[in-house]
Design a protein that fits this description.
The chain has helices at about 5-15, 70-80, 90-100, 115-130, 185-195, 215-230, 250-255, 285-290, 305-320, 325-345, 370-375, 380-390, 415-430, and strands at about 35-40, 45, 50-55, 110, 135-140, 150, 160-165, 175-180, 200-205, 205, 215, 235-240, 265-270, 280-285, 350-355, 360-365, 395, 405. With about 425 residues, it is an alpha/beta fold. The strands form five sheets. A seven-stranded mixed beta sheet has the order 4-14-13-12-9-5-8, sandwiched between helices. Strand 1 and strand 2 (about 45) form a beta hairpin. The longest helix is centred in the C-terminal third of the chain and has 22 residues, at about 325-345. The chain is globular.
């Protein structure tokens, strides 16, 4: 029995499913999860000492790669000063100012410890600001595991949601409407019937949990218009895209194509923590004034603004703010996708790819999906075989068909060539 198998056997005795977050269990792809012992740059090393080019990057935070010297120095210094105080620190202000500096739609932020917490709080804030209860989300978008967001649509237009997790009462999701991603007609009909009840619409501008699916410019433009017309707040969940697809997040990319575009509330995570548990939500001063201690919407957290986490996040944001950083990161990501695409084409295997900044996705399909239905219709069995072939070749991709991938600044020509050669062998094996 391998070391990874031994660890997984031990883990399953004391941790449900052997993991502390479900996708890590490899249930979607089969096999034994790799237990990671250490990481450096663009690589992770498992408990057996095998080295992998890492395209998970802790699911997004490691935009600089693992163990970046400036980040490591900042974290060690902060840790020596104290792990947690339960009181304000100057570094919280520094991090808030840095986020606001790059995101014009945000005038104030509140720091929290996870993306789930940030999304949950953003929705509570929107409800407090509007005095309304109903929210719209889109099938295939993931906003954390808060009860009101673990919901799936039934059949028909704007169907009231039904819980997709045990332990979530139907009453909790009765104010959640689930619509199809990128469907303008359905969106318009939902606003026509429910507009006066809507507190907010929450959306991932690039959905990363049905792999990589973009919200079209036309859809985002109409969504912004409808929210404004009906007095609902637009929440842009940039936990995954924030500071990764561009320094100003995905909202800055839409603002280049939609005059005056801006969300009402923004949610950030992953990159702003640099690998530490940290997230944030922000909006105008007027909206944020609804939060305690200024307003009636309560939100709190013992570890919010943790001094070590803020040091890690601040050092990360300083590094990625350097001129040309995101242009170089985007070019590297496109090279990775071009390598996969060229090897698939050579093997006559249908593959479509897409990327933005350091975020990417690929599908065993003839065309890119535009919503959840088309995303889940791709060849799952072929992906699973490809995943394991790449893993055997020393390339660590997300162990699930419906997860986006991540490239870091530490990925260079050697890692991209390694990926190309592993993909060549993997595609060859698929044809065997």
């Amino acid at each position: 029995m391998s070391t990874n198998e031994q660890l997984f056997e031990r883990a399953q005795k004391v941790i449900p499913g052997g993991v502390n977050s479900p996708v890590r269990a490899f249930r979607a792809v089969g096999g034994t999860p790799r237990f990671i012992a250490r990481a450096e740059g663009a690589y992770v090393v498992d408990a057996e000492g095998k080295r992998y080019v890492d395209y998970i990057g802790s699911w997004g935070p490691m935009i600089l790669g693992h163990g970046h010297p400036a980040v490591l120095e900042a974290v060690l210094k902060a840790a020596r000063d104290g792990f947690s105080f339960g009181a304000p620190t100057e570094r919280e202000i520094d991090l808030a100012e840095e986020i606001i500096r790059h995101v014009p739609s945000v005038e104030q932020v509140r720091l929290v410890s996870s993306g789930t917490e940030a999304c949950m709080s953003a929705i509570r804030l929107a409800r407090a600001a509007t005095g309304r209860s109903r929210l719209i989300k889109f099938e295939g978008c993931y906003h954390g595991h808060a009860d009101a967001l673990l919901v799936k649509a039934g059949s028909g237009l704007a169907t009231f949601g039904h819980p997709t997790s045990a332990g979530v009462p139907a009453e909790v999701v009765q104010h959640t409407t689930v619509l199809d991603y990128n469907d303008i007609e359905q969106l318009e009909q939902a606003f026509a019937t429910q507009g006066s009840e809507l507190a907010c619409v929450i959306i991932e501008p690039i959905a990363g949990n049905m792999n990589f699916v973009r919200s079209s410019v036309a859809f985002m433009k109409r969504l912004r218009e409808l929210c404004h017309q009906h007095g609902a707040l637009l929440i842009m969940d940039e936990v995954m895209t924030g500071f990764r697809v561009a320094l100003g997040g995905a909202q800055s990319l839409y603002a280049q194509q939609i005059p005056g575009f801006a969300p009402d509330i923004s949610v950030f995570g992953k990159v702003i923590g640099g690998g530490m548990p940290l997230a944030a939500f922000g909006a105008s001063r007027r909206i944020m004034a609804q939060l305690a201690p200024l307003g009636p919407a309560y939100q709190a957290g013992t570890l919010s603004g943790n001094p070590v986490a803020t040091a890690c996040g601040l050092a990360t944001l300083h590094e990625i703010s350097r001129p040309g950083f995101h242009a170089a990161l985007g070019a590297r990501t496109r090279e990775v996708m071009a390598a996969l695409k060229s090897e698939a084409d050579a093997a006559a295997i249908p593959l479509t790819v897409d990327s933005e900044g350091g975020l990417f996705g690929f599908f065993f399909a003839d065309r890119l999906p535009h919503d959840y239905t088309t995303a889940v219709a791709v060849d799952k069995e072929r992906f699973n075989r490809f995943f394991h072939a790449m893993l055997d070749g020393g390339v660590y991709l997300a162990p699930a068909l419906y997860e986006a991938g991540f490239v870091s600044a530490a990925h260079g020509p050697a890692e991209i060539e390694h990926t190309r050669l592993a993909a060549r062998a993997a595609f060859s094996a698929l044809n065997a």
